[in-house]
Design a protein that fits this description.
83% of the residues lie in helices and 0% in strands. It has 7 helices and no strands. Helix 4 runs parallel beside helix 7 and helix 5 packs antiparallel against helix 7. With 135 residues, it is an all-alpha fold. The protein has one domain.
């Protein structure tokens, strides 16, 4: 059975499955901290929410990409991925803090695409910084 878990196909499927599960959990957490409902807004065609959510998805998965590349066990990868997610979450709150003239969540909910785009780029950019430090 040991050889089974060392098979590259099995290992890839395991990492893939765990990252998908973590992505779902982390997106649910983001859903709790935003004032709008991501998937309802996306269904209505709110492009700002779609961009912000897409940036979060890319950011989370990019952090896990770096975590997979630099760690040799599934549990270590999950730990660093979760830590990276927490840093992305902190980045989200810092973005809100540094924009005192408007509320980021309210602007994204109103389909302000400029704010949605900046939110997406912050998530993507921070994921590269976090990922570079996971090594």
């Amino acid at each position: 059975m040991t050889g089974f878990w060392e098979n590259d196909y099995v290992e890839t499927a395991a990492y893939f499955s765990v990252v998908i599960l973590c992505l779902v959990v982390f997106l649910a957490i983001f859903e709790l901290v935003t004032k709008y409902r991501n998937w309802e807004e996306i269904k209505k065609g709110n492009l700002a929410v779609a961009m912000a959510t897409g940036g979060k998805i890319f950011g989370i998965v990019n952090v896990f990409r770096h975590s997979i590349s630099h760690h040799d066990t599934l549990f270590t990868m999950i730990g660093w991925g979760a830590y990276g997610f927490l840093l992305l979450l902190v980045g989200y709150f810092i973005f809100e803090f540094f924009t005192p003239k408007f509320k980021v969540d309210e602007e994204i909910e109103k389909d302000n695409r400029a704010v949605g785009f900046i939110s997406m780029m912050i998530s993507i950019s921070l994921s590269f910084v976090i990922g570079a430090n996971i090594a």
